[in-house]
Amino acid sequence: MSKKEKPVDNINPKHYKDGCCVECIDAMVLAWGFHYTSVHCQITAFKYLWRFKNKNGEEDLNKAEWYLNKSDELNELGNRDAQITEKNLQLSTMLDKARETYDLY
Does the residue 39 lie in any domain? Predict the structure, then answer.
């Protein structure tokens, strides 16, 4: 890789905002609001936790973490739904256990 090339960010890649100044996740907030986008992020985090051993390993765990953080952020900006908060805590525990089990800390 030359000095001018930036490393590829597989967690939040450039194509998520190509052709537009708004990232897809931000457009989702505008279309569906904080609550539903937060739930989407939660479900997506679960998907990455579910498949990490069989697909992309640590990269999937990093993506799960990104989506959990985004879900928390959106929940804070919205109405602070207690169910979202509780589920995010459960998913964070799953993420920590996955990293410990597979020595990915």
Answer: yes
Q: How far is CA 101 from CA 12, 53, 96, 104, in A?
A: 26, 11, 9, 8
- Domain count for the chain: 1
- Asked whether residue 13 is assigned to any structural domain, the reply reads no
58-77 helix and 24-51 helix, angle to the nearest 10 degrees:
130
Closest CA to 91 of 57, 59, 48: 48
Domain residue limits at 84:
23-101
Residue ranges of E strands in 1-105: none
Alpha helices in 1-105 (DSSP H): 24-51, 58-77, 82-101
- pTM for the predicted model, two decimal places: 0.80
Q: Rounded to an integer, what distance in angstroms lies between the CA atom of residue 102 and that of residue 96?
A: 10
pLDDT digits (tens, 9 = 90+) for 21-65: 888 999 999 999 999 999 999 999 999 999 999 999 999 999 999
**Closest by alpha carbon to 70, among 103, 23, 6?**
23
